[in-house]
Amino acid sequence: MNYLKRANELAIANVEEGGQPFGAVLVKGGEVIGEGVNELHITHDVSGHAEMIAIRRAQQKLQTDHLQGARMYASGEPCPMCYAAMAFVGIDDVIYSASVEEAADSGLTRSKEIYDDLKKSHTERNLIRSEQQKIAEISPLQVWQNK
Ligand SMILES: [Zn+2]
Asked: How far is CA 140 from the centre of its chain?
C-alpha cells in the first residue's frame, strides 16, 4: 500500500464531507496501526487533527505510551501540536505531502503562524503572552523528584 497516497485519499474524502484537507496514516512494522482525518468540523475538539487521532488510535490499539519505530504519513506537514505529540510518543519519522507553507497559501495559515512564533525567544513571541510566577509552596516537581 502507498501510505502517503492513502493519507491524501483520506484528506480528500474529508473535504468532501465538510472537513479540512488533512489525513494521516501511522505505520509500524508494515502494518497500519492508526489512521485519522481532521475531525474539527465534527467534534469541535482542537486536538482532532488527523495525526493526533492516528496516534490516539494506535496507542489504544497497542496499549502503549511509546511508538518508536512507527512512521507517520500525512497529507500535510504536521502542525506544532502534532509534531510535539509525535515527539512525546517517540515517532521520529514523518513523510508528508503538502508543506506548512503550501497550506498557508491555501488559506490554512495557523500552523505556519505558530511555527514562526516558536522560532522567536520567549519574550518576543506574540501569539500567547506567558509569564512564570513562583509561589512559596511545595512544588509538584519536588514531589515528583522525591517520590
Ligand atoms: Zn496538527
From this structure: 27
